[in-house]
Amino acid sequence: MPVQKAVVIGAGIGGLTAAIGLRRAGVDVKVFERRTEPSRLLTGGGFMLWHNAFVALQKLDLDDRVSKVSSEILHHEFRSANGRTLARWAIGPEAARIGAPAVALRRSDLNSLLLEEAGDCVVMGTQCTSFEQDADGVTAHFADGSTERADVLIGADGMRSAVRSTLRNGHDLPPRYAGYTAWQAIAELPGEDVVPSGTFFNLWGKGGLRFLYCRLNENEVYWDAITSDEASTAFDMFRKNKRDVMCETYASWQDPIPQILAATGNDAILPIDIADRPPTRDRAWSHGRVVLLGDAAHAMTLNLSQGAGQAIEDGVVLSGLLAREPDLGRAVARYEELRRDRVDSMVRGAYRIGELGKWKSGVACGARDLFMRAFFGTFAKKGTYRLMMNFDY
Asked: Do 78 and 202 touch, CB atoms closer than 8 A?
C-alpha cells in the first residue's frame, strides 16, 4: 500500500511543500525542525519564483495565496554597470502562454504561508541526529533522546543536511564554494520613479561585481550584490560596516544602485558565501526508506533563481508519488528518474553563469557584454525557458 506515515526533517520551503502535499493526500506527516521558533525560519531577503514553481504550486492550490504576497515580474532586464541594456526579456507574454506568472516576494512571506498551511504537523526545536531503517520502517533519532517511526523519512534539512550525512555513513564531500558572496537585503525605498515595479534588473560589471534588484511592493526593494573573492579582498571589514563597504564598492555604478544602498540599514544586509553540490558527486538521493530533496539533494547557486523553485517541484513530485504508488521503492526510484537530469542541468547551468560574473578585466567583461547583447535576448532566453518548462509532474 502507499505510504501511511512520513517524517520530514527540515521546515524549509521544500520540506513544507512535501508535507503539505502528503497531508492533503491523507498521509500522516510530522515535520521536525531544529530551530526553536518560527521567527527563526522567517528570515532572508527576497527572491524570484519563476513560472515552473507556480505550476507546481497550482498542484497544491497554493498559487493564488502566493500571488497575494508577491509582485509579478513582467520583464527581466540585463544591463551593464553603466546602465546600458544588454538584453530584455518580456516575461508577461510567457506567463500568459504558460498560465503561470513569474513573481518576486519576501522569503519570509513564502515560509510563513507554507507554515500556516502545514499546520500542527510541524514540531519546532527538535534536531535530528541520526536514523536507522529496516524492512518495515525507519526510525529518526533526535538530540533530546526521542524517536519517531515512519514508513519513509524525507531529508529536507539544507545544504549541510544531517540526514544526508547519515545516509552517507558520516562522510560526504563538502559543498563546492563558487568563489563569490551574495550580499542580500531589502531596502525601504518607495517611489516607482526610483525602482519601477514589474522588472527584475540584472547588472553585470567588471572587477568581479554584479548587482540584482527588483521592487517587492510599493515600499520595499530587494537587492543582491554579488562580489567575487578577488573583489572582496579590497573590502575593509575591520573599520567599515557592511553598508559602507557596499556603498563604496558600487559608488560609481549608475543610479538607482547607490540610492538603493544608501536606503538600506546595515543590519539588514546578510552576506552569504555561495556554494553548490556538483552533480558528478551525487550518485543517489536516496537509500531504502530515506530520500533527500531541495538543497540536501542538489544545492545550486543563485544564478538561475531556481533553488526555491526546484525545492517546490521536489516536494510536489515526491509527495504525489509517495501518496499514489503502492511500492515505496518504485516511488522513490521514479522520483529520482523524474528529477535528476532536470536538476543536474540547472546546477551546471547556474554554476556556468556564475563563472561569467567573476571576470575582472575590462577587456574580458566588454567581450562578455557583447556576447550578452548578441545572444541573451534570443538564444539564452529560449534555452532558459526550454530548461525551465521541461518538467513532468
From this structure: yes
- Whether 41 has a pLDDT exceeding 70, the answer reads no
Element (H, E) at 370: helix 362-375
Q: Mind spelling out the 3-state secondary structure of 123-182? A: EECCCEEEEEECCCCEEEEECCCCEEEECEEEECCCCCCHHHHHHCCCCCCCCEEEEEEE
* Confidence (pLDDT) at 284: 86
Please tell me the distance from the alpha carbon of residue 323 to that of residue 301, in angstroms, as a whole number. Answer: 31
Q: Does residue 282 carry a pLDDT above 80? A: no
pLDDT at 380: 95
- Count, residues in the chain: 393
pLDDT at 39 over 70: no
109: closest CA among 21, 208, 217? 217
- CA–CA gap between residue 157 and residue 139 (Å, rounded): 17
Question: What is the pTM for the complete model shown?
Answer: 0.96
CB 155 within 8 A of CB 9: yes
Any residues with CB less than 8 A from the CB of 17 and at least 6 apart, and which?
56, 60, 114, 311, 312, 314, 315, 316, 319
Cite the DSSP H helix spans in 218-285: 229-232, 242-249, 257-262
d(CA 46, CA 359): 26
Instruction: Quote helix, strand, coil % in the chain, to nearest 5.
Output: 40, 25, 30
Q: What tens digit of pLDDT does each residue of 157-209 get?
A: 999 999 999 999 988 899 999 999 999 999 999 989 999 999 999 999 999 99
**Residue 319: how many other CB atoms lie within 10 Å:** 29
Assess contact for 344 and 310: CB atoms under 8 A: no
- Helices 307-324 and 51-59 pack at an angle, to 10 degrees, of 30
- Tell me what the mean pLDDT of segment 294-309 comes to: 97
> What are the φ and ψ backbone dihedral angles of 42, each rounded to 5 degrees?
-90, 55
Q: CB of 20 within 8 A of CB of 60? A: yes
List the domains of the chain with CATH numbers.
5-174+276-388 (3.50.50.60)
